[in-house]
Amino acid sequence: MRTSPSIVPPAADQDVYLVLDQFGNRLGRAWRETDEEDTDRETLLRHLLEGQYSNPIRIVSFNTDEGWSRDASEDVADELRQRCADQGEIPTFLAGFLDQYGHEDGIQLSLPIRL
């Protein structure tokens, strides 16, 4: 009998983040395949900012050691929005995701100071 590799991380107490991506009307949505070492929060944020996901729809996180799972879309959107504000721009490939999740309160894009 053929078995699939486990998605349970080998390191104890590791939070895992996965992205549901929209590939258009014809192809639909799919959970993106990712390397095991690329499922941590910081790597996910970096990949989102680099545009490695075409149209992220939802982000879930889970921790099998602690026995929980949740929709992390709003938290990730808030962090992305802050990082975009620090960089001074919101990439077009993230605009839809940021519009759908998170709150814009208190985050202002920085303006250049000219002396």
Q: Would you mind describing this structure in some detail?
A:
It contains 3 helices and 4 strands, in the order ββαββαα. It is α+β, with helices and mostly antiparallel strands. The chain has one domain.
What would you say about this model in short?
With 115 residues, the protein is α+β, with helices and mostly antiparallel strands. Helix content is 30%, strand content 19%. The protein starts with 15 loop residues before the first strand and ends in a 15-residue tail after the last helix.
User: Radius of gyration from the CA trace?
Assistant: 16 Å
Strand-residue fraction? 15-25%
Helical residue percent?
A: 25-40%
Distance between the termini: 70 Å
Give the overall shape: globular
Question: Averaged pLDDT, please?
Answer: 84
The H/E string reads: EEHEEHH
Total E-strand runs: 4
Structural class: alpha+beta
Poorly predicted parts: none
Task: Report the major sheet.
Answer: 4 strands, antiparallel
User: Helical region count?
Assistant: 3
